[in-house]
Specification:
single chain, mainly alpha, Tyrosyl-Transfer RNA Synthetase, 3-stranded parallel beta sheet, globular
């Protein structure tokens, strides 16, 4: 039986943090030898918001290096930059002709990001989900690892695949979301009711993957806590529950065991031990990241783009043929 295909990607904007690592990237690493994998640096998504060109180039390479340092194997995965495969925006246009204005207008991420800007919102921010659908459908993707906040976009992707197939015949694979339960949403160190965000202008609210040990200790020591001194997991203790989740994912110790270990102990000791767990968990990643050569990373990305292009071109040929577009 052939392997199922996985597609996912991260925008090269902001600073990648431990939430991205624990909630997404490490999950990709675990499944990479069981599936056919396409992991993309989605730079075209990033430019839906104005980017500084120099920062965009630097951040794009940084995300690729993070993929590799985290343990993604270029022999087991196709790792590439989205804008290096022209079929992504090309297919996004085709899917846009099948997408309804009302569907895009209901997207909660669009409404959150657009805010009160009214007519000054860029069209790219509105049509972002059709590009995401193109990313996924180009590779006959079966499984899409996403956070809960992206589930709505996957539902639209499924609708578009079915709509295309109903109109033009069976052509596109209808993907399924893979949503992790534990660790899927690592929350902000400053606000346990908000997801840890790589675009947060306050560095103290997240642990960057390249933070030095002393920085990690300081951020965790200053992380907000709940009222009461008991260390337990539950909805009435969102801040401690978030820290317990991070401790569990970085140490491998179950949350019930951590609750028992720190019963009757204060937040200070708990936070000190948590900081050391995070530091040790990130140490191998940080050592591999520091050892990566930019020229070699660019070579691997070029190889990945070649492989991705070959698959994407086949999909586009099939799509165009079914739609009646005359081949070049």
């Amino acid at each position: 039986m052939s392997k199922k295909t996985v597609f996912s990607g991260i925008q090269p904007s902001g600073v990648l943090h431990i939430g991205n690592y624990l909630g997404a990237i490490q999950n990709w690493v675990r499944m990479q030898h069981e599936t056919e994998n396409y992991f993309c640096v989605v730079d075209l998504h990033a430019i839906t918001v104005r980017q500084d060109p120099a920062e965009l180039r630097e951040n794009t390479l940084r995300v690729a290096k993070i993929y590799l340092a985290a343990g993604l194997d270029p022999k087991a995965c196709t790792i590439f930059i989205q804008s290096h495969v022209k079929e992504h925006p090309e297919f996004a246009w085709i899917l846009a002709t099948l997408t309804y204005m009302g569907e895009l207008g209901r997207m909660t991420q669009f409404k959150d990001k657009a805010g009160t800007k009214g007519e000054n919102v860029g069209v790219g921010l509105f049509t972002y989900p059709t590009l995401m659908a193109a990313d996924i459908l180009l590779y006959d993707t079966h499984l899409v690892p996403v956070g809960e906040d992206q589930k709505q976009h996957i539902e639209l992707t499924r609708d578009l695949a079915l709509r295309f197939n109903n109109a033009f015949g069976a052509t596109l694979v209808v993907p399924e979301p893979v949503i992790r339960t534990v660790g899927a949403r690592i929350m902000s160190l400053g606000d346990p009711l908000s997801k840890m965000s790589k675009s947060d202008p306050r560095p103290a609210t997240y642990i960057a993957l390249t933070d030095a040990p002393e920085v990690i200790r300081k951020k965790i020591a200053r992380a907000v806590t709940d009222s009461g001194a008991d260390i337990r997991f539950g909805p009435e203790k969102p801040a401690i529950s978030n820290l317990l989740t991070i401790f569990h994912l970085t140490s491998g110790t179950s949350i019930p065991e951590l609750e028992r270990r720190y019963r009757g102990k204060g937040y200070a000791e708990f936070k000190r031990d948590l900081a050391e767990s995070v530091i040790e968990h990130l140490r191998p990643f940080q050592e591999r990241y520091a050892a990566l050569d930019d020229a070699e990373v660019l070579r691997l990305l070029a190889d990945g783009a070649d492989r991705a292009r070959a698959v994407a071109a086949c999909t586009m040929h099939r799509v165009k043929e079914r739609m009646g577009l005359v081949p070049a």
